């Protein structure tokens, strides 16, 4: 009976953690750093990011994986990392910094050309 209870608890926990979730768009700050410069509403990079996240706010999954910083939009309380077609979003909450991932097929205009 104890084994069955443990299996049920593990299954329920797994399903809860890895369920589809919506990201909290209200946590997007008015200014982000991208490619070493500050961007905000009206800047093409900021507006593009906001458009994509708004169009894809549902269907995210929690992730505990570390990702190499690739194309990063950053503020101390909100971060987006574009890794190919995988988008990684993390933001500050009362419980810490949850991280969410989602595959988004989008041809990003913005990039850090060096």
- Beginning-to-end CA distance, first to last residue: 61 Å
| Share of residues in strands | 25-35%
Order of strands, main sheet, comes to 2-1-4-5-6-7-3
Q: How many structural domains can be distinguished in the coordinates?
A: 1
Set out the fold topology.
Elements: H1 2-17, E1 31-34, E2 37-40, H2 44-55, E3 61-62, E4 71-75, E5 78-83, E6 86-91, E7 99-103
Antiparallel strand pairs: 1-2, 1-4, 3-7, 4-5, 5-6, 6-7
Please, could you describe this protein's structure?
By secondary structure, the protein is α+β, with helices and mostly antiparallel strands. The chain has one domain. It is 25% helix and 28% strand. The chain is built from two helices and seven strands. Strands 2-1-4-5-6-7-3 form a seven-stranded antiparallel beta sheet, with helices on one face. The termini are far apart. The model has no long low-confidence stretch (mean pLDDT 87).
